[in-house]
Structure formats: C-alpha cells, structure tokens
Amino acid sequence: MDFPFSFLDKSSLILIFFFHGMIFSIILFKKGIANQNFSNNWLGALLLLCALYITPYMLGYTGWYSRKVTREILFFTPFMQVLVIGPVVYFYIKSLLSPTFKFHKKDWWHFVPGILYFGYSCIVFITDKLILDEFYFYSDFRDKDLKAWYQVAGLISMFSYLILSLQKYIAYKKAIFETVSYADSVLFKWIQNFLLAFLALLILRVLFFIINPQWEEFGSQFWYFISFSLVFFYISINGYAHAVIANTFVIEKDDDPVLFLEDDKTNSTSIDVDFWKNQIQTLIKEEKLYTNPKLTLSEVAKLLDTNTKTISTTINSGFNKNFNDYINDFRIEAVKAKIQKNEHLKSTLLGIALDCGFNSKATFNRAFKKSTSLTPKDFINSFK
What we know:
By secondary structure, the protein is mainly alpha-helical.
C-alpha cells in the first residue's frame, strides 16, 4: 500500500513551521477565551491562517498532488485564505490599541471577499464531485488556490489592510500623547515590529512574484515558503511573548485614545484657555500630580470638574505641548531641582527620576534630553 505521507527534506522543514503555528494558535485561542482578550483570539486566527497557507506546499512536497485521493483533498480544500489574512491583521491591531474594541455586525463586510471565495470553492466541489463526478473546474489539474489572479488579489488586499492598520496606529500614537503621561510605556513597540514583519511578508511575496513569474508552477516556490515561514515564526514567538507579558501601564477605558479621537472632533471655540491655563498649572504644582507615574488626562479633568476636551485644548493651545510632554516637563524641573540640591549624591539618578514621576530610565533619558538638549549626566557635570 502506498502510504500517503512521505516527508522528505522540503516537506519536513515546512512541517516544523506548520505544527509550530498550529500549537501557538491553539494556545492563544485558549488564552484569549480564558482572559476574554480579543487580541489573543485575532493573533491566534492569524497564526492559524498562516499555518493553513503553507499546508498545500507541505503536503505537496510529500507527493499528495501525484495521488488521486490526496490530490482531490488539496484541490477542494481552500487552505489559502489570502483574502482573510488582511482583515484579521487589521482587527488584531484595533484590538491591541483599544480596550473598548468590539467586533460589530458591520465589521463583517471586511470578510465578504473571503466568504465569496469560500463560496466559489464550494461550487467547484459540488460541481466536480457531486454533480458531474469528473473534473470540470479542475480540468487543468491546477490548484485554484495557487492561481496568479487569486494570489495577486490577496496581495492587494493585504497591502490595503496594512495601510489601514498603519493609519490606526499613527492616529493612536498622536492620541496617546494627549491622554496619558506615560505614553512611551504604551506605544506598543510590538505593534511596530509586527507591522514591519507583516510588510516583510508582502515584500517577499512581490520579490518572488518577480523572481518567479511562473507563480502557478508548484516546484519553484520552495524558498518563498521557507522565507514566509521564518517571518511567520517570528510573529508567533514575539506575539505570544507580548500576550504573556502584561504591561504595567494599561490604558483604562476612560482614557481610551480611540474614544478621545472621536471626542476631539467637537467644537472647542468656547474654551477660556487663559482661565484654564492657570487652573491646570496651579493644581499640578500644588498637588504635585506629576509624581504620579500613571497620571492621565481624565484624572486632571475630574479634579478640575471639567472634561478632557477642555484640558487637552488648553494644554495644546496655551502651552503648545501635548499632555505627555507637559507633565514630563514638570517632572524634569523636579529632577533638576533635586540635582541642584545635590540629592544625586545621596541617591541614584534613576531613584530621583522615579520619585519625580518617571516610570523607566529610558523614558527619563529621552524626556530629559528632549527638554534640555542635555543628557542627565551632562547636566550634572555642568554644575561641577
């Protein structure tokens, strides 16, 4: 009997990445359901799609396309859902950026192209296997998932959703500096790395399209799928690590940057900037609010019995700064005052920075140099 699995060098190598993706996908789904964390579910879905994407090649190199029964499994199973990957990436980014994110009915339209292709796959199966009992759609004996038109459509879709994801992230970065005083801690370095990795996948696709114009020819695509698998491996390892390591500074729903952006569209012409400038500055100085490393725009607004729009507009217009930089300037002045009193001789510079409201050495160094054009050590040396 001809055993259907005959894993050799090429198929075995891809098999490693396939199992890796499936295992991490299951773990993330389990973690997401247990913690009600939507971002874990979306990342799990992406890893599952990536594992399925390399499946035809993993099985193809074992000889499945050369056997009737196994060939038909590859033909009629739509493993490569390239029109679904882009929307999944987009909603993964949205769920990471906003604690209030929910998937609504209207969001299903993003998946219409993928659903239509799945419907097309069903029609092909019903026609060729159940109605005609012979190959009609598959009379050319070429897997529909590997067709150039479908792969190009998937590439366009993924590029489009990459752009949408970047727009969301750029808007988030702008809003986060307006809503919290610890922006550097929640800029999600992982999102930048993830989007770069996803871009690398698309660039690899384009390069191999150019290198291998005969995209529908199965045998000459091995190195593309190995390259794809390596990037996919990086995403799974680092994405899972990001999911496991809880960020100390978590954005609360009241300070959700997405909600702030929506609220920011309201009219601000009636705000008395000069009056509120004095109110804000007096409160922060007298109460030393800047020493709270988790200080947010909403907290200041509540203490002054007003709304976040008023505080944000006043700081932007009155001080020409965003909220994060405005609070950091108070912290830097407090650090400088302690240095001038020689407190750095009794305590570490990091200890002083933490006492003044900074949450990390890296954030302190960046903010200090941005404000003074000097490093903390250079500032200390200037008093010698």
